[in-house]
Amino acid sequence: MGSPELANLYQQVILDHSKRKKGFGLAEGGVAESHQLNPTCGDEITLRLHLADDDTIERISWEGAGCSISMASASLLSELVPGLTRDEARERIALFREMMRSKGAGVEDDEPLGDAAALEGVSRYVARVKCAMLGWVAFEDTLSLSS
Ligand code: ZN
C-alpha cells in the first residue's frame, strides 16, 4: 500500500484490528445469523448474534475474508456491542452509517462509536464505504431476524 491515500486509510487502529480480529470465529448457539457479500471488493462476512437472558447483546461472533477495512470494521463492531440493548445497537448502526455517508465530514458526536470512529477517514472513499459497512449490515440483519 504505497500511495499516501491508502496509507492514510490504514491507520494504526485499523491495522491492529485487521491483524487481531475481535469476535472472529463463529461461536456455538446464537439467535440469528447473516451472511453478507460485498462483490465490488470480494469481502464476505457471516455473523451471528448472541443475546443475554435479558435480551441485551451478549456479543457477536463472525467469520469471513476480505480487505483490511472490512475485517477491521467487523472487529471494531465486535468490541462495541456487548451489553447494548437492541435500541442502542440500532442507534450505533445508524450513527455509523451517517458517518460513512459523510464523505469525510464525520458526525457531530462519534463518541458512541468508540474505536470504530477511527474508520471515519474511509468515508472519503466511496468505493470503500461498503467494505466498512459490511459487518454492520450483517449485524443489523441479525437484529431484524431475531426480533
Ligand atoms: Zn473491501
UniProtKB/TrEMBL annotation:
A GO BP entry: iron-sulfur cluster assembly
Pfam annotation, one family: NifU_N
CDD domains: IscU_like (cd06664)
Classification via Gene3D superfamilies: 3.90.1010.10
Residues annotated as domain NIF system FeS cluster assembly NifU N-terminal: 10-131
Xref: InterPro entries: NIF_FeS_clus_asmbl_NifU_N
One GO MF term: iron-sulfur cluster binding
UniProt name for this protein: SUF system NifU family Fe-S cluster assembly protein
Organism in which the protein naturally occurs: Labedella phragmitis
